[in-house]
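Q: Convert this sequence to structure tokens.
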Amino acid sequence: MTPSAYRNPLEQNTTLAVFNDDECIFTSEKKWLHPLFDLESFLQNFENHSVLSAHDTAIGKAAAVLMTRMGITFIHAELISRLALSYLEQFCPQVTVSYSHVVDRLMCATEAQLESLSDADEMYYLLRKRAKLTQGVSLQLDHVSHPYGNLCDISFSLSPGDRLMVTGENGTGKTTLLSLIAGILKPTSGRIFIDGRAAGKQKKRTVGFIPQFTVQPHFSLSVSEVVGLGLDVHTKNKAKEIEQALERTSSLHLASRDFATLSGGEKQKVSLSRCLAQHAKLLLLDEPTASLDSENKQMVVDIVRSLTLTEIPTIIIVTHDPELTSLARWNTFCLKEET
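A:
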């Protein structure tokens, strides 16, 4: 059945109305993209939708990206930009679009930001960041130095949800840099701030660190117990959280194993599960694919990619792996011997 109700005039002050078939299931009076992000949350708990349609007061390219991502296939706009129309025609031919008025582009910064982009995932990531819908925290390094790796006068900053790839030859201090940020080492000079607080002063479990070589515990722990270390003792449904984290890394079959008996690659996957269960806001990964076969390397790449579209923590990865360094539009920081 082709819906029709979505083309009816909007109620006064309503900026967005969404229909399941011809039943109105969602309305909003908010501005910008906030109604669509609210709709996204609403649809996560709305079951058995069939044909979704929407009536919006103004649709630019950003709104077109979000609507089609949510499976809306019939769209009516009172005002739409040619930039949005071009995107829908080129990448979403299954969507039926109607409109009352058309302009070249909407007069907003978001329209300009997306103008040259075509990757829907990348645009979604940028929109979530712009709306401050990220799990990540800010990070700032001011003139940080340490003798290990001969790190000298390192300065950079990341905003919540940023993604940074740290590269460089062996011995240039990449692991030392992560250890400093994680609070395992202290800088001999300079300062590190996480979420606006001096490193070590942030809330517990803010930082999730996966070292290249997993430290062997001095006592026996099962895999489930290791993953559970990432959870607060008061976490509800702790067993479910652990199970879901292990499932994401294809490690659920290891749940009852003694962590000490695992291979290096298995330990890496379990450590990643721990950080996922932890919902770390700053994720530090030191050569996360180094001990993995090609299938599990791809699994890590897929998880990292999914994190940038779901939780969106701030992520720093040290790697030489071309599968990771080829991830699109990551910032890169290269450490050199003379650094």
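The radius of gyration is 23 Å.
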